[in-house]
Specification:
Keywords: DNA-binding, Transcription, Transcription regulation. The chain is an alpha/beta fold. The chain contains 10 helices and 15 strands. It has 2 domains: 57 residues, Winged helix-like DNA-binding domain superfamily/Winged helix DNA-binding domain (Arc Repressor Mutant, subunit A, Orthogonal Bundle), CATH 1.10.10.10; 177 residues, 3-Layer(aba) Sandwich (Rossmann fold), CATH 3.40.50. Helix content is 37%, strand content 25%. The protein is globular and about 55 Å long.
Length: 254
C-alpha cells in the first residue's frame, strides 16, 4: 500500500472512531511505528488531525459531539432522495433497525410525524431525533461510543441483537466493492453490522452511488448478505450487472 493510500485509510479510521493509537495503526497496516508517526505528522501538517502522545485524534471532534452532528454531508441531495424512497418500504407497525450514518439520519428525519413504528438504533443522534416523537418507540443498543459517528459499536452492541427479530434493516456502508463486498473503516463495526443483518427479515442497503466501486479497510462479506439496494440514479451498468448476478434488487430513488 502506498503512503498516500495508507494515510487516507488512517484518516478514514479516525473519522469513524475519533482517535487511534500508534501501536494499533502499526499492526493494522503492518508497518513500523516510526512509519505511522510519520504518517500522523504529515496529516497533522495538513490540518486533518491532532497528534498526542502515543496516537492522534480527529480535529474538532469535541465541537462535533457537542452539536450532535454527523460529519459526512457529501452528496446530501442524493441521500435525501434515498431517504424519501425508504419511507415507501416502512409500514405502520413495523419494527425496524436504523444503522448509524448520514443516510440513515436522513431516513430518521423523514420518519418524524409520518409513521407509527419501533426503531432500534445504535446511533445516538437518531435516538435523540426520534425519542420525543409520540408515535415512535426508540430502543438503543449498548456498546462503546464512537464520537465522530455518534454511534455505539463493539461486541456489546452486537450482543443486543441476539434473539431479536425485526421486519427491516436499513444498513449503511462506507464502500461497496465488487471484490470485497460491503466494507467499513472500523473493524469494531463488523460484528454489529452482521448481528443487525441476522436479526432482520429483510436488509436494505442504503448508499449513494459514489460508494460503489470503493472499499474501506474492513470487509463484512459478500453482497449476498443484503436483499435490496436503495440508491440514486448514478449507478454504472457494470455494478447493475453484479447486483443482478447476486439476485439483489436495485431500487432507484429519483
Amino acid at each position: 500500500m502506498l503512503a498516500n493510500q495508507r494515510r487516507d485509510k488512517i484518516l478514514d479510521l479516525l473519522k469513524e472512531d475519533g482517535s487511534a493509537k500508534v501501536t494499533d495503526l502499526a499492526k493494522i497496516f503492518k508497518v513500523t511505528e516510526v512509519t505511522v508517526r510519520q504518517d500522523l505528522e504529515k496529516l497533522e501538517k495538513d490540518g486533518l488531525l491532532i497528534r498526542e502522545h502515543g496516537g492522534a485524534f480527529l480535529k474538532n471532534i469535541k465541537d462535533q459531539v457537542s452539536s450532535f452532528s454527523v460529519a459526512n454531508h457529501d452528496n446530501l441531495d442524493k441521500k435525501e432522495l434515498i431517504a424519501a424512497k425508504c419511507l415507501e418500504f416502512i409500514e405502520n407497525g413495523d419494527t425496524i433497525i436504523l444503522d448509524s450514518g448520514s443516510t440513515t439520519t436522513e431516513i430518521a428525519k423523514k420518519l418524524k410525524g409520518n409513521r407509527h413504528v419501533t426503531v432500534i438504533t445504535n446511533a445516538l443522534n437518531i435516538a435523540l431525533m426520534l425519542g420525543a416523537e409520540p408515535d415512535i418507540e426508540v430502543i438503543m443498543t449498548g456498546g462503546e461510543f464512537k464520537p465522530p459517528t455518534l454511534s455505539l459499536t463493539g461486541q456489546k452492541a452486537a450482543d443486543f441483537f441476539k434473539g431479536i427479530n425485526v421486519q427491516k434493516l436499513f444498513l449503511a456502508t462506507a464502500g461497496l466493492s465488487l471484490k470485497a463486498g460491503l466494507t467499513y473503516p472500523s473493524i469494531s463495526d463488523l460484528v454489529v453490522k452482521k448481528a443487525m443483518i441476522d436479526a432482520a427479515e429483510t436488509t436494505y442497503l442504503v448508499a449513494d452511488s459514489t460508494k460503489f466501486g470503493k472499499s474501506a479497510f474492513a470487509s463484512l462479506g459478500a453482497l449476498s448478505l443484503i436483499n435490496y439496494i436503495i440508491t440514486d440514479n448514478g449507478v454504472e451498468e457494470n455494478h447493475k450487472e453484479v447486483f443482478r448476478t447476486h439476485e439483489i434488487e436495485l431500487i432507484i430513488a429519483d
